[in-house]
Amino acid sequence: MPILEARNLTKTFRRPDKASGFKGAVKHLVQRKYKNYTAVDGIDLSIEAGESVAYVGPNGAGKSTTVKLLTGILRPSEGTVRVMGRDPHVERIPNAHDIGVLFGQRTQLWWDLPVEESLKLLKHMYGVSDADYKARLARFDDLLDLGEFMPALARTLSLGQRMRADLACALIHAPKMVYLDEPTIGLDISVKDRLRAFLRELVDDGTTLLLTSHDLADIEEVCERIVVIDKGAIAYDGPIQQLKAHYITTKAVNLFLEGPADVPALAEKFPEYAWAAGEAPSEVVVTYESNRFTTAEVLGGLTAQLAPRDLSLSEPSIEDVIRRLYAGELTK
Amino acid sequence: MASVDLALATISFKRKIAYKTTWIFSVLFGGWSLLAGLAVWSNLIGDGEMGGYDWQAMKAYLIIGFLTSTLAWAGSDWDMANRILDGLVAVDLTKPVDFQRARAGEYIGGMVASVPAAALGTTAAVLIFRPAPPDSALAAVLTVVSVLLIFPLAFGINYLSVLTCFVTQRFLGIQWARDTMLAFFSGMMVPLALMPVWLQATAWALPFVHFTTTPASIYLGRVGTAGALGLLAAQAAWAAALWVIGRLIWSQLVKKVTVHGG
If you measure CA to CA, which chain A residue comes closest to B252? Predict the structure, then answer.
C-alpha cells in the first residue's frame, strides 16, 4: 500500500478580476468580479514508503500548492489524498504527528528566541522523549553543525544556519513522510552540499521524501524518481535515470582546432554528426546521437582526422531535459 | 493544562519579555494614561459625585480600569494576525496541536508577561492615591476572580477579531474597531453609569462590559453578593461562548484557507 496516494487532486482558487488604474479600483469596489484559477489540475500521485521523489516545475506550476494539499494545509477542490491511510486535511492532527514539513521560504523558528527554544517547544508538541530528543539533536549536530548556533536568536542566523535549524525542526520527531519545499533556496554551495548529504542519509534510513526544488542538483543527488509538473498537471513521472535515458539521446564534444574552424566544410565531411561553431574561432561543437555512436568511435575518428589541440566532452544534464519539458519540446 | 499548552504559553511569555524597551514603554504609557484619567476626573468630580462615584470610588474605578486595560491589551493579537496575513499559518497547520488551543496558550502567555507591569502599576497607584478599599473581603476575592476571567475573555474577543483576517486580508481596521468597542463598552473610557440608559443596556448585552465595569462594580459593592456572582457567571459564560463561536468559525474557515506562494 502506498504511503501517499492522491487521486484527481485539484485545487481551484478564486482571484479578483480587477482592471488596472483608478477606474479599475473604483469599479472593483462597486462591482466585484472574480476569476477561478486552477493551481493543481487533476493530479494522480502515488508514493511508496522509502521512496525519494523530486517534484519539480517552473514558477507557478503548482508545486507548493500540491505540497500544501498533501500536508493537509489546504482542502482539495476535487479529488482525494490519503497519507498513511488518512485524509490529511480532515485528520490534520494525527497526520501532523507522522509528517515533517519544511517550507524554504517560511521559517518555523520563533524569531525572537534562541533556536533551542523552538526545538524544545517542538519536543513538547510531538511528545518526543528526552532520550530521543538528545540522540536526534546529537545526530543533527554531527551532520548539520547545529551546536554552533543553538543558543543564538533565530533572527540573528544566516540563511544557511536558519535552513539547517528549520530542517532539524522538521525532523526532530523522526517523521515517516517528509515534505521539503525548496530547502536549498538561497544557500551557498557548501551549505547545499551539506544539506544534500544529510538528505541522502535520511533517505538511506528509510524516510519517505518529497522534495520540490528549482536546483536540479538537489534532485539528481537526493532523489530516484522525478515528477515534473507544469500548469498544474503532471508532465512526467518516472525514475530520473529513465528520464535521462529516454530524453538524453545526444552527446556533444567540443573540439579546439589548430586554426579557425570551417563549420560548413566539416559538416559536409562528417554528415553523420551535427556541427556548430563554438565560442572561440577555433572551437567547434560536434553533436552526435548516443544510441548510434559510442563516444570512443566519435573521438577516435575525429582526433585522427582533425588532430585537435584540445577537446572536452559534455553530456546534457537533467536540467536541459527539464527545460525542454517546460518549453513543451518534449512529451511524456 | 497539557504540557504543550504550557510550553506555548511560556514561549509567548519569553517572546514578550525579550523586548525590554517595549515592555518598559508599555508600563510607562499605562501609568501615564492612569495619571491623565485621575487628573481629568478629579477636576470633574471635585468634592461631589458623578454617576454614584465620589472621588475615592472614582480613584478605585480608574485604578481597576488601568489594571484591566493593561491585561486586555497585552496579548499577541498582531502576532496571530500577521501569521495569517503572511501565510505562516501554513506552518501552524503542519503541527500536531489544536489551532485554537495553541493560539490560546500563546495569547495567555503574552498576557501573563504583562502581569508584573500591571501589578507594579496598580500597587504604586494604590499606595500613592489611596483609593476606596474593597466593599468587603468577599468583594475583594470576587474582584480577583473577575480579573482572572479577563484572560479567557480577552483571548476570545481577540481570537475572533483575528480570524476575520482570513476574510478581510487586513487587520488594522478590525483592530481599531475592536479596541474602540472594548474601550467604550467596557467602561474604560467613561463609566457606564454616566451613559444614557439605552447605551448602558447595549453595553450589558455585550462581552466588553466584563473587562472593567464588572470587576469595578464588584470591588466597590455596587452589586450585592448575588449580583456579583451573577456577573461572574455572565463573564464566564461569555468566555465559554466566545470559545465555542471561535471553534465554529474556525471549522468553516479552515476549509477555505488560502496560502499562496512557496
Answer: A75
CB atoms within 10 A of CB A191: 19
Instruction: Evaluate whether B134 touches B143 at the Cβ level (below 8 Å).
Output: yes
Domain assignment of residue B230, given as a range? 3-253
Joined together, the cell numbers standing for residue B159 give 481570537
Contact A117, A124 (CB under 8 A): no
Q: Which of B18, B97, B261 comes nearest A64 by C-beta?
A: B261
For residue A109, what pLDDT is reported?
94
| CA distances, A273 to each of A122, A265, A308 (Å) | 59, 12, 17
CA distances A332 to A291, A324, B207, Å, are 20, 12, 61
User: A146-160, A232-246, B131-145, B166-180 — which is least confidently predicted?
Assistant: A232-246
pTM metric for this prediction: 0.85
Q: Chain B residues with CB inside 8 Å of A64's CB?
A: 261-262
| pLDDT given for residue A87 in this prediction | 97
Distance (Å, whole) CA B187 – CA B170: 27
Number of domains in chain B: 1
**At A330, is the pLDDT very low, low, confident or very high (cuts 50, 70, 90)?**
low
Quote the minimal CA–CA distance from A221 to chain B in Å: 22
Q: What is the DSSP letter of B93?
A: T
- The model's confidence at residue A128, banded by pLDDT at 50, 70 and 90, is very high
Q: Exposure pattern of B211-237 as b/e (b: 16+ CB <10 Å)?
A: bbbbbbbbbbbbbeeeebeebbebbbe
- Tell me if chain A has a CB within 8 Å of the CB of B88: yes
Residue B260 lies in a domain: no
The pLDDT confidence band at residue B98, using thresholds 50, 70 and 90, is very high
Confidence band of B27 (pLDDT split at 50, 70, 90) = low
Q: Tell me if B243 sits within 8 A of B98, measured CB to CB.
A: no
Judge whether B55 and B68 are in contact, CB under 8 Å.
no
User: With an 8 Å Cβ cutoff, is A92 touching chain B?
Assistant: yes
Residue B40 lies in a domain: yes
Cα dihedral A291→A297→A302→A305 (10° resolution): -140
Rounded distance between C-alpha atoms, residue A322 and residue A91, angstroms: 35
Query: Residue A329: pLDDT above 80?
Result: no
Q: What per-residue confidence (pLDDT) applies to B1? A: 60
Q: Does B10 map to a domain? A: yes
Closest chain A CA to residue B93: A73
Domain presence at residue B197: yes
pLDDT number for residue A238: 92
Q: Which of A246, A250, A330, A321 is nearest to A285 (CA)?
A: A250
Domains of chain A and any CATH numbers: 50-63+87-245 (3.40.50.300), 249-315 (3.30.70.250)
Q: What is the pLDDT of residue B26?
A: 73
Average pLDDT, chain B: 92
Interface of A with B in 98-157 (CB under 8 A): 99, 101, 103-108, 110, 112-113, 117, 120-122, 124-126
